Structures are given as C-alpha cells and as structure tokens.
Amino acid sequence: MSAKGKVHRNERIKISSIIPISDVNGPGSHYTIWVQGCSLNCSGCFNPQTHNRDSGQERKISELFQEIYRLWLENEIVGVTFTGGEPLQQLGQISSLSEQIKAQTNLGIIILTGYNPQELQQLPNIQSIIKNVDLIIAGRFVEEKKIQMGLKGSSNKKYLFTSDFYNSIDLLNIPPIEVIYNSLGEVIVSGIEPDPALDAINSEFSPK
Fold first, then answer.
1. Taking the domains of the chain in order of start, what are their residue ranges?
2. Which of 109, 110, 154, 191 gives 145 a disulfide partner, CB atoms 3.0 to 4.6 angstroms apart?
3. Phi/psi of residue 178, each to 5°?
4. What is the pLDDT at residue 61?
5. What integer is the mean pLDDT of 182-204?
6. What whole-number distance in Å separates Cα of residue 167 and Cα of residue 97?
7. What pTM did the predictor assign?
8. Is 126:138 a contact under the CB 8 Å cutoff?
9. From residue 158, how far is each of 5, 35, 45, 136, 177 by CA, in Å?
C-alpha cells in the first residue's frame, strides 16, 4: 500500500447504515454509507434517524475499506456514495476513506451534503475532500422544492463535478427507488423518500 493510501488502523467513523450494493444511490452499483450525525435540521428530511450523533455505530475505516475493496475486485460496484446524516460533519474520516479508495481502486465517489457551495468553501480542509471525490451534491433539502430526481431531493441542490467520472445525463437515469431482501429476510427500501414505498410493502404483506 502506498503512503498516500494509508489510514490509521483504528480510525473510526460513526455510521447509521450501509447498503453494500445499491443501484439508486449513484449511476451503477454503489457501496452506500449513511453516516450518523447532522446538525442542519432540514425541515421534512426523510432520514431523521441519522441526525442524533449519539446513535448509530462506530466502524473502523480500515474495515470499511476492505469491504469496498473486495466488492470492487469482484466487479460488484463502480462507486461509493456518502450520504446521511451529514458526511462533512465527519470530514476527516470521509477524507481518509476517500483517499484510500482513490489510491487503491478506480471507483467513483459521490458525497451528498446539506452544505451549500459557499459554505463548503468555509469548511476546514475541504480541499482534502475535493481532490479525492468526483461529485458533490450540495445544498439544504427544501421541502417546498422537492423533485426526487438525479440524487437531488430538492431542485435547489447543486451538482459540483470535480472530475469527468460522472455527468448529469448519467444521474438522470438513476432509478428513484429500490427494494432489497437481505439474507436475514429483512426488507430494505432505498431511494429518494423511500418511506411511502416501504409503507405500501408493509401494508401488502401485513396480516389481513
């Protein structure tokens, strides 16, 4: 491993959940991490369970990288998406993991953040993120401007392309929602505002 890709063995990140292979959180299959913790409190946010910094679980960044690396070797994923929660409120950890991904793989990296472009420029060490990701989708979720398209929850959000890995046409072809049945028999629904779909599934299979 090159020095550029090194991550401290015990460095940890607080996460809410992970979908290892998701087809609705990027163009193609993406390893998707919902980080835990967000203080922005956007009205109508459809991931409120990710806000409390004291909830969720800690994971070693080195272990997450090994999972991502294995799926990349097996050609199961083409990218990694960080969402939440607010990924950039754990900027150092996201930077470390992104740096290692870029040093060891050819995966694309997307970050969904509630910070707008002007706020991003004020974040300490933001350049450590920008140099290792390919797309930042920036801006608060605004319920009155909800569009549910191209990884945007609302129309005010901005695409900040930092490489040519992704383009706006690719983003428009992302399915809006997916339903996954995992090995434990759990039903996982992901996408923009997935709760109505999950409610419909629960209603369909609940005892009559």
1. 3-176
2. 154
3. -140, 150
4. 97
5. 57
6. 23
7. 0.86
8. no
9. 29, 20, 17, 8, 21
